Amino acid sequence: MSNDINRVIIIGRLTRDAELKSTQSGTALCNLSIANNEKYGDKENVSYFEAVMWGKGAEALTQYLTKGKKIAVEGRLQQSRWDDKDGGKRSKVVIKVEQVQFLDVKKSDDNAKQESSIPEFNAKQDNPFGDDSNEIPF
After folding, report:
1. What is the largest CA-CA distance in the chain?
2. Residue scoring higher pLDDT (107 or 63)
3. Domain boundaries, the chain
4. Which one-letter DSSP state was computed for residue 118?
5. How confident is the model at residue 43 (pLDDT cuts 50, 70, 90)?
6. What CA–CA distance (Å, rounded) separates 58 from 29?
7. CA-wise closest residue to 103 among 15, 13, 9
8. What's this model's pTM, rounded to 2 decimal places?
9. Across-strand partners of 77?
10. Which of 13, 20, 117, 128 has its CA 20 to 30 A from that of 85?
11. The CATH number fitting domain 8-83+90-122, selected from 2.40.50.140, 2.70.50.60, 3.40.30.10, 2.60.34.30
């Protein structure tokens, strides 16, 4: 079976504060909405993307993911399909976040201390393609 590639990186600003929820089994999930602006001469196009983070990283970062923050997220696109109450077919594509980077860190000493306390979110801790590896893993 072939391995298809599903990778996305989005840079933009949060349109609302992150929303932390929990599944019935107790797993944390954090919902994000990101606005991505693109300019063409005088015109500007804004696209909105929904994203979700899972687990302890989601719990740790939710408090820092506030409306207006500029972030970069890396992850995979994931599609959900369902039937609505009228029997119609529905679907939604979201970004399943694997990494988050905060981009509007200020350079003053006070903010540097404050921003350095933000935990890093990396859902791929055991990435076989990490920067330390000099060998091809296959």
Report:
1. 57
2. 63
3. 8-83+90-122
4. S
5. very high
6. 6
7. 13
8. 0.72
9. 95
10. 20
11. 2.40.50.140
Q: Which of 3, 11, 2, 131 is nearest to 75 (CA)?
A: 11
Identify residue 58 by its one-letter amino acid code: A
Q: Which residues pair with 10 in a beta bridge?
A: 73
Place of tokens 């990435």: 127
Quick one: tokens of 2?
């072939």
Q: How many CB atoms lie within 10 A of CB 42?
A: 5
Cα 118 to Cα 120: distance, rounded to the nearest angstrom: 6
Spatial neighbors of 128 by CB under 8 A, at least 6 apart, are: 137
Rounded Cα distance, 39 and 35, in Å: 13
Q: Which long-range contacts (CB under 8 A, 24 or more apart) does 86-93 make?
A: 92/50
Question: Which of 40, 108, 98 is closest to 72 using CA atoms?
Answer: 98
Return d(Cα 18, Cα 116) in angstroms, integer. Answer: 20
The DSSP code for 135 is S
